[in-house]
Design a protein that fits this description.
Structural class: mainly beta
Strand content: 35-45%
CATH topology of the largest domain: Neuraminidase
Distance between the termini: 61 Å
Shape: elongated
Radius of gyration: 27 Å
CATH class of the largest domain: Mainly Beta
Number of domains: 3
Length: about 450
C-alpha cells in the first residue's frame, strides 16, 4: 500500500489478526466474541485522494479492515461494529486515579484524573509512575453499559496488560475482563464490548504492565441511564455525589457526636482530616504517619469517639505499627478543638499479627453498653498455619469487647463478656469463629451488631 501525508487528513487503517485477543469466531464480526477489534493495529498515513478503487491484497492472516478519516490534529475512534446503545457518559461522572506526592507517598489523584474523561483526547491524564496503577470512573447514576473504550497514550509502543473491574451499584467491584500482553501504541483504542449490556456505576481500570508510565488520553463509557421502575412505594433511587476532595486513601468517615457538624476522615497513611462545610481543613486533626505502617490491609484502620466526647476530649485509634501489629491507642485533643496531640498516645492493646493480610482493626462503641468493640482478622490464613477462628487463647479472628472508659488502665473487661470465667479463653473475646470481620456496624435503635 502507498501512502502520502497531506493536510486533508489522516486515514487510519486498522488491521486485526484473526488470532488476536479480539477472539474472532471467523471473518465476520460477532458481538458474542467478547472483546472485539482488539489486536494488531497498523496505522498508515495516506491522503484522502490517494485511496484507489482497487482493493489491496491483504495477507491471509488479516481477518478484517476498518477505515476512519480524522483530521491530523485530532484522535477519533474508528467505528467498532454496531453503534453503542447510548452516548459517552463518562464526562458526567467523576474520576480518581492512583498517584504519588512529591515525597513519593501513595495518594489518590482527584484533580487531574478528569483530563481522561473530559471528552477531549488531546488532554492526557498521567500517573507519572510505572505500572501497576489504577484509574476509576464513578458514573453519576446507574447505566446500562454496552461499550467501554480506552484511548492509549504511550511511548514507547509495546505490550500492556489491564484488568477491567465493574461495580453494579452494590459498592463491590467484580472483575469483568483481563487484557493480557496486548500490543499497544499511542493513540490506539482498546475497545471492550459488554454483551449483554451490564448495569454499571463504576469502571475501574487496573494497569498491571506497561513499557511506559501509565496514562490515558480518554476513557469512554457508553450507555443509557437505568430508569426507575414506576412502582408505588418503591425505594428511592440512590446516587453518589462527591462531598470533599483532596483526601488520600480515605478508609473511614465518622463524626464525634458533639454537634460540631464536622466530619472526621481517617487516611490510611496515618492522618485524620476534618471536613467542615465540604472543605478539608489544611492542618490534619491527627498525624501519626511517623509510626504507621501502610498499606494493603495495614495502615491507620479506624477511629472511635466515646460517648460524651465533648466533655472528655479524647478518642481512640487503631493502626498498624512498624512491627506490623495492630495497636489500639487513646489520644487527647489540644486547646484547639481541631487539633489532637500525637504525643498524648496511650497504647491500650496490641494484637500481634502473623502477616499483613486480614488484620481487622475496626472499632465502634456499643450504643447501649458504651463498651468498645474491636474486630480482629485471622492475620492471613496462609501465613497462620492453624485456623485461629476457634482458638480460644488468641485474639485473632475474633470480635473483642473492652471497657476503655472505666478509668482502669489500660482497660477493664466487662463482667458480662461471655468467656470471662472460662478456662483457656481470652477474657476480651465477645464473639469467635470469624475469619476477617473487616467492618461492622450497630443498629442504633436495637443495639444489634451487623458484620457484612
Amino acid at each position: 500500500m502507498r501512502s502520502n501525508n497531506r493536510e486533508s487528513g489522516i486515514v487510519f487503517l486498522k488491521l486485526f489478526n484473526r488470532n488476536s485477543v479480539a477472539g474472532y469466531c471467523g471473518a465476520s464480526f460477532k458481538r458474542n466474541c467478547g472483546l472485539v477489534l482488539l489486536g494488531l493495529t497498523v496505522t498508515l498515513l495516506a491522503a484522502c485522494g490517494s485511496v484507489r478503487n482497487r482493493q489491496p491484497q491483504l495477507p491471509s492472516e488479516v481477518a478484517s479492515l476498518t477505515v476512519s478519516l480524522s483530521p491530523g490534529s485530532r484522535w477519533t475512534a474508528s467505528p467498532f461494529g454496531p453503534p453503542p446503545i447510548g452516548e459517552n457518559v463518562a464526562p458526567l461522572g467523576f474520576a480518581t486515579a492512583s498517584a504519588r506526592d512529591l515525597t513519593g507517598l501513595q495518594k489518590v489523584d482527584a484533580e487531574t484524573a478528569i483530563l481522561a474523561i473530559d471528552g477531549n483526547s488531546d488532554t492526557v491524564w498521567t500517573s507519572n509512575q510505572p505500572a501497576p496503577q489504577w484509574f476509576s470512573v464513578l458514573l453519576d447514576v446507574l447505566y446500562r453499559v454496552d461499550r467501554i473504550q480506552m484511548v492509549i497514550t504511550q511511548a514507547p509502543a509495546g505490550p500492556t496488560s489491564h484488568e477491567l473491574w465493574l461495580d453494579n451499584g452494590s459498592g463491590s467491584r467484580t472483575l469483568f475482563r483481563r487484557l493480557t500482553d496486548v500490543p499497544t501504541s499511542d493513540g490506539q483504542i482498546l475497545n471492550v464490548e459488554l454483551d449483554p449490556p451490564q448495569i454499571v456505576s463504576e469502571v475501574f481500570i487496573n494497569t498491571t504492565k506497561s513499557p511506559s508510565w501509565v496514562a490515558w488520553r480518554e476513557v469512554k463509557v457508553f450507555g443509557q441511564p437505568v430508569l426507575d421502575p414506576v412502582v408505588a412505594g418503591s425505594a428511592p433511587r440512590l446516587t453518589l455525589q462527591p462531598v470533599a476532595l483532596g483526601l488520600e486513601l480515605p478508609v473511614r468517615v465518622t463524626h464525634a457526636g458533639d454537634n460540631s457538624r464536622r466530619l472526621f476522615v481517617a487516611e490510611k497513611m496515618g492522618r485524620i482530616r476534618i471536613v467542615r462545610n465540604g472543605s478539608v481543613l489544611t492542618a490534619p486533626f491527627l498525624d501519626i504517619t511517623d509510626r504507621v505502617r501502610c498499606c494493603a490491609h495495614r495502615g491507620l484502620i479506624d477511629m472511635a469517639f466515646p460517648p460524651f466526647y465533648s466533655e472528655k476530649n479524647h478518642f481512640y485509634v487503631s493502626y498498624t505499627n512498624a512491627s506490623g501489629h495492630t495497636i489500639i491507642s487513646r489520644f487527647r485533643t489540644t486547646e484547639n478543638a481541631d487539633r489532637a496531640d500525637p504525643d498524648s498516645e496511650e497504647v491500650l492493646l496490641t494484637i500481634e499479627q502473623p502477616a499483613e493480610h486480614h488484620n481487622g482493626g475496626s472499632m465502634a462503641f456499643g450504643p447501649r453498653d458504651g463498651y468498645l468493640y474491636i474486630s480482629s482478622g485471622d492475620g492471613g490464613s496462609f501465613s497462620y498455619p492453624d485456623n485461629p477462628a476457634l482458638d480460644t487463647d488468641t485474639l485473632l479472628s475474633k470480635l473483642l469487647r473492652i471497657d476503655v472508659e472505666s478509668g482502669i488502665e489500660p482497660y477493664l473487661v466487662p463482667e458480662s463478656n461471655p468467656f470471662i470465667k472460662a478456662e483457656g479463653y481470652r477474657d476480651e473475646i465477645w464473639a469467635l469463629g470469624l475469619r476477617n470481620p473487616g467492618k461492622f456496624a450497630f443498629d442504633l435503635a436495637t443495639g444489634d451488631l451487623f458484620i457484612p
